[in-house]
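User: Let's play a game. I give you a shape written as tokens, and you guess the letters that built it. Ready? Here's round one.
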């Protein structure tokens, strides 16, 4: 592999380690969808607790989605298809990959996604 792929691999692995660390710090297993929460402290705290759980779930969903994308980008790098959009098969722009090394969709397909 060339130096550019080695650099990308390093960036992706570093990002993966960081995502796994963040997921674990939130009390979740990166390989599982399960989340452990502490029991509610009392009735008056339940609405706050529910709100905090919703926030935690949203953050975990984003972290897990990013982890999935990083893993997908690593697999594509190993397979020789890194930089090719998963949806349309066109090249992902260099600027996009520089900004988000784990991007698996070109900018046009990402915009269509939502």
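Assistant: Ready! My guess for every position:
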């Amino acid at each position: 592999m060339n130096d550019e792929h080695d650099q990308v691999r390093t960036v992706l692995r570093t990002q993966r380690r960081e995502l796994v660390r963040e997921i674990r710090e939130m009390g979740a297993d990166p390989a599982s969808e399960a989340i452990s929460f502490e029991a509610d402290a009392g009735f008056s705290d339940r609405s706050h607790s529910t709100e905090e759980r919703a926030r935690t779930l949203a953050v975990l969903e984003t972290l897990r989605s990013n982890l999935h994308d990083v893993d997908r980008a690593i697999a594509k790098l190993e397979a020789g298809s890194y930089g090719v959009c998963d949806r349309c098969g066109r090249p992902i722009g260099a600027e996009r990959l520089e900004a988000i090394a784990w991007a698996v969709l070109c900018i046009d397909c990402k915009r269509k996604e939502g």
